[in-house]
Design goal:
- This protein has helices spanning about 15-20, 65-75, 110-120, 150-155, 160-170, 175-180, 200-215, 235-240, 255-265, and strands spanning about 5, 20-25, 35-40, 45-50, 55-60, 85-95, 100-105, 125, 180-185, 195-200, 225, 245-250, 265-275, 275-280.
- The protein is an alpha/beta fold.
- Helix 2 (about 65-75) crosses helix 7 (about 200-215) and helix 8 (about 235-240) packs parallel to helix 9.
- One of its GO terms (molecular function) is sulfurtransferase activity.
- This is Sulfur carrier protein FdhD.
Length: about 280
Amino acid sequence: MSAIEFLAGAPVLPAAAALRPLLAQQWQCGGAAAMQAVQVAAEVPVALVFNGISHAVMMATPLELAEFAVGFALSEGVVEQAHECRDVQVHVHGEGTPDESRAVHIEIPPRHFMRLKERRRALVGRTGCGVCGIDSLQALDLRPESVPAPAWRDVLDVQAVLRPFEALAARQPLNARAGSLHAAGWATPAGELTEVLEDVGRHNALDKLFGRLALAGRLGEPGFVVMTSRTSYELVRKCARLGVPAFATISAPTTLALQLARESGMHLWGLCRPPTALRYV
């Protein structure tokens, strides 16, 4: 059984779940302040609960949480295949209150659950974090899997890399209204942008993207990841675990991100801002 079940009741519009209306003062140099209605991105605790045991609490935008949970389970090595995430249920707590939160319950096979218990990584995530919940240097996983080297990747040119970035803004409706969300997208080898997921956390956005692709049976199809963030080592690590051969971001990488990309064989593009992009070698 692998059906996704939502327990929150009636569906809510994305803007209603992800954006909250507030008032702010708009100031101008040499002028008076005026009140203005604005939209602010929601950021709530989301607990990921595997077989009844809470494994992680991430601060996230409360949308596409089934995709988020499945993508997290895959990119963090909790499971190996999307179908191993069974009976995914999203519970809403205290909606609209200061204590608002979500809990995503997932059933995974016993062998994966035993391995998860051994890792004992009850981590608390933050939107800018990297190693939250890792309690020792020995627990830090810096050995990425090798990624495939398809023929299309070796001839991927700058036009194809930049094409999805030219289309990203129009595919970010939440960020257009609130101005504070990251986006992770999937592009074909020709540069066609086919999926875009948004979240206040860059890691969350990437996990949502992987979850969306996995639930549609599209993981492993030719393509590459594009993101509106810097290239952190955690993002490279997640992409390598799922066999993504090329990764492109709007900002620059860190030295550790470059190291992991080289070790995995991934092609890394950064500072993708039309009309130029950097390919790190």
